[in-house]
Specification:
With about 240 residues, the protein is an alpha/beta fold. The chain has one domain: Vaccinia Virus protein VP39 (Rossmann fold). The chain is about 35% helix and about 20% strand. The chain is built from 8 helices and 11 strands. Strands 5-4-3-8-9-11-10 form a 7-stranded mixed beta sheet, sandwiched between helices. A two-stranded antiparallel sheet has the order 1-2. It has a two-stranded antiparallel sheet with strand order 6-7. Helix 1 (about 20-25) runs antiparallel to helix 3 (about 65-75) and helix 7 packs across helix 8. The protein is globular. The model has no long low-confidence stretch (mean pLDDT about 95). Bound molecules: S-adenosylmethionine. S-adenosylmethionine (SAM) binds near residues 57, 58 and 63.
Length: about 240
């Protein structure tokens, strides 16, 4: 699975999967799912502990969430799957505007608040259409508030109207929410404190040379004896020892 020449992880299991070939054209957010992540997610799901929960932070329109559900079905994994997204607009000029603009991308006819509703509905539609028998437990929350509830074992109502008890261990987490160092590091530590031995974390946008929070975290994680780097393509898949 490791290509000795490039040092990159390759997973051929997903290339012949017709559903995976189609999913990018069915769900919005095509550019947000790195091709290499698909093989890494497949590897993690196939090899994760059978107990514990799967978690996704940052779902957007549901592309990676539907992929995770598909791969869990394929590998006969019955772990519960939780997702969390604040469905906030992350614009090209948000840093400059400090999120004070009510409209997005310089348009005076597309409200930030409507964008949020649009994204959330896109997620609900794609999940209901592509994964009707395996709805995840999905929460419209900032990750810090989600983890507060998780750490306190609270019961919360998810976006599909189900009351769910939060808390417990994780077997695999896909971290693709807030990309600042502060948010990503906090999310990672919250996940790490509940991660089972042999459990995995895939850090989106952690590839060498990137400027996102996840990429900066990798240097710290590599020094942490609780974890080992299992693969990269180009993002990093981490496993708890
Ligand atoms: C890159 S998109 C996720 C793409 C998705 N994983 C996919 O591949 O289809 C990032 C998402 O993270 C969400 N987000 C950003 N900051 C967040 C935070 N602090 N807590 C929860 N969600 C957040 C945004 O609303 C956005 O939908």
């Amino acid at each position: 699975m490791w290509d000795k020449l490039s040092g990159i992880f390759k997973n051929n299991n997903v290339e012949s999967d017709d559903f995976i070939k189609r999913i990018r054209s069915l769900v919005i957010g095509e550019g947000m799912l790195n091709e290499g992540n698909i093989g890494l997610i497949d590897f993690a799901i196939k090899n994760m502990p059978t107990e514990g929960n799967v978690l996704e932070i940052g779902s957007y329109g549901g592309l990676s969430a539907n992929l995770i559900i598909h791969l869990m079905r394929k590998h006969h994994k019955n772990n519960s799957f939780f997702t969390c997204d604040a469905w906030i607009y992350e614009g090209y000029k948000d840093d400059l505007q400090k999120m004070t603009h009510s409209h997005i991308d310089g348009r005076d006819d597309i409200l930030r608040s409507e964008y949020s509703v649009y994204m959330k509905n896109a997620f609900i539609n794609s999940i209901r259409f592509l994964s009707p028998q395996n709805l995840p437990f999905s929460f419209h929350q900032y990750s810090n508030s989600f983890f507060d509830s998780w750490n306190e074992n609270k019961s919360e109502v998810d976006i599909f109207g189900r009351t769910v008890s939060l808390g417990g261990h994780f077997s695999f987490a896909y971290l693709d929410g807030g990309h600042s160092y502060e948010v990503a590091w906090k999310d990672f530590n919250n996940i790490a404190s509940h991660l089972l031995p042999n459990g995995f974390v895939l850090l989106d946008d952690s590839a060498d040379g990137q400027n996102f929070g996840s990429a900066k975290m990798i240097a710290q994680i590599k020094k942490d004896k609780r974890f080992k780097v299992i693969a990269k393509n180009p993002n990093y898949l981490i496993q708890k020892i």
